[in-house]
UniProtKB/TrEMBL annotation:
<protein>
    <recommendedName>
        <fullName>Glycosyltransferase 2-like domain-containing protein</fullName>
    </recommendedName>
</protein>
<dbReference type="InterPro" id="IPR001173">
    <property type="entry name" value="Glyco_trans_2-like"/>
</dbReference>
<dbReference type="Pfam" id="PF00535">
    <property type="entry name" value="Glycos_transf_2"/>
</dbReference>
<dbReference type="InterPro" id="IPR050834">
    <property type="entry name" value="Glycosyltransf_2"/>
</dbReference>
<feature type="domain" description="Glycosyltransferase 2-like">
    <location>
        <begin position="12"/>
        <end position="88"/>
    </location>
</feature>
<dbReference type="InterPro" id="IPR029044">
    <property type="entry name" value="Nucleotide-diphossugar_trans"/>
</dbReference>
Amino acid sequence: MLIHDKIKKVGVVLPIYDQKPEYVYECIYSMKLQDYNNFELVIVIDGANKSTKQALFNALRKFPKPFKILERSTNKGIAYSLNEGFSCLSNCDYLT
């Protein structure tokens, strides 16, 4: 078994609604700074306002890792968003 085969994959779902833009930016930036790189990021934009989405896209321009974005125009709540995001993750050992 190779050492790479032992590294666990982490799936991260980030639901976005109407958070303060600086919190959104800080969250994405903290993901960028992680030493652990074997993760998959799914961002669910759940009817977020324009300033929240702008902060998200500004942060993602500097995010070098692959990610998926799911976007809907109306808010369906955090539970729906998390479930939708988790359903998009593949082969992850841990979900958060």
